[in-house]
Specification:
Helix content is 27%, strand content 27%. By secondary structure, the chain is α/β, with parallel strands linked by helices.
Length: 393
């Protein structure tokens, strides 16, 4: 393992346990590590401070540990076992009625660059750093050894998440097993999980708690689920006793999936209808007062800060359409999953839309990512999901 020397005074954030080392903090490295190699990080005076994965870019090192310890099979097993213990303690894992959860959430579980989602007896592993890609087989082996988690399959899905400049030639595929049984359970509801071709790891695990909240508000209401993807919000609304539920997504494949998930839980139920249409066009053309519960869960409008201004305009425009169309006494669930957009910026965009619509609006809930997507207290950048539940007079 090669040694990376920090510039004088650049160890302060690491002493506060921030897990990233930026390239501007690096003085020099003894040797020439390949991207993804482990490096031992020391201060300008030579004092040990961390071990992490070296990478090319503005983030030079993602820290795995602040202890001087080997990164071996025991390390991976300990970290994964700790992550599972947390999920069991919070009542998310270890339940027959809920086999869908996030086991590893990157920096939030002290494993920066790694995501692991569990769907029944399948774990979907996603690497966001070259270092985690290099370690994928060790991670898969540790997952299979976890007490309290019975996995038949480990699927690796990182074709679109790794730096393209690394030229790794990575392909999605099974690291263990090969069973394509794609049905998992979330809070007693069943869902097809498209980990082969779906977005993220195949399902938006991070909206579980917010879907349950929609269920509480759905009784007797006419529900519109925009950007529906797998139809999670739609299925929960139907169990909550919604009078009708309409799901909209621009992707015909997503519409097929939401219809399959509705049929899986409510076979032959005529309350649901799905539309493969552009969201803005659908909102513009739909009748006023047609719905009294609207869910806006768009894809990230800003994947980086350069797109922030246009993203905020997009959120304002989208929410304005909903405010203009929703029935008086309606409930609006509105979200942003853009990490580049802060809570205050998102709220300002929604407030602007409310003001432009002339409607009286009250905040009922402020929403965020669930407990199995923890935020490392030393890494506030890990907070990304923001949401508001609004009552519109």
């Amino acid at each position: 393992m090669q040694t990376l020397y920090l510039k004088r005074g650049k160890d302060e954030s690491l002493r506060r346990f921030h897990p990233w080392i930026f390239s501007g903090a690096v003085h020099h490295i003894d040797g020439q590590p390949a991207e993804g190699d482990l490096v031992r990080v020391v201060t300008a005076e030579g004092e040990f401070i961390a071990i992490g994965h070296w990478q090319i870019g503005s983030i030079a090192v993602r820290v795995l540990t602040f202890a001087d310890e080997p990164i071996d099979a025991g390390f991976w097993l300990r970290r994964l076992a700790c992550a599972l213990d947390v999920r069991v303690a919070m009542g998310i894992a270890g339940r027959e009625d809920n086999t869908t959860f996030r086991l590893v959430h990157g920096e939030g579980d002290n494993l920066p660059g790694l995501v692991v989602d569990v769907y029944g007896r399948t774990a979907v592993v996603q690497a966001h750093s070259v270092g985690m890609h290099v370690c994928r087989h060790e991670i898969a082996a540790a997952l299979q050894q976890l007490d309290g988690l019975q996995l038949d399959n480990i699927f690796y899905k990182s074709e679109t998440t790794l730096p393209f400049k690394a030229d790794l030639g990575q392909e999605n595929g099974f690291l263990a097993g090969g069973d394509f049984d794609d049905v998992a359970i979330e809070n007693g509801l069943r869902f097809h999980i498209d980990w082969l071709r779906g977005q993220k790891t195949g399902f938006f695990v991070d909206q579980r708690d917010n879907r349950a909240l929609v269920e509480q508000y759905a009784h007797g209401r006419s529900v519109l689920n925009m950007f529906c993807y797998t139809g999670g919000f739609s299925v929960y609304a139907m169990r909550g006793g919604a009078e009708k539920v309409h799901s909209v997504d621009s992707s015909a494949k997503a519409i097929d999936l939401v219809n399959a998930n509705v049929e899986l839980n409510f076979p032959g139920d005529s309350r649901h209808e799905a539309f493969a249409e552009d969201a803005f066009k659908f909102l513009q053309q739909m009748e006023d007062d047609a719905y009294d519960l609207i869910i806006l869960d768009p894809p990230a409008f800003a994947k980086h800060k350069d797109a922030l201004r246009n993203a905020l305009k997009g959120y304002t425009r989208l929410n304005l359409r909903a405010f203009e169309k929703i029935r008086p006494g309606g409930i609006l669930f509105t979200f942003s999953c853009s990490q580049a957009v802060s809570k205050d910026q998102f709220r300002t965009a929604v407030f602007t839309a409310a003001a432009l619509s002339g409607r009286r609006v009250r905040i009922l809930h402020q929403l965020h990512q669930p407990a199995d997507h923890p935020i490392n207290i030393y890494h506030p950048e890990g907070e990304y999901l923001k949401g508001l539940v609004l009552y519109v007079e």
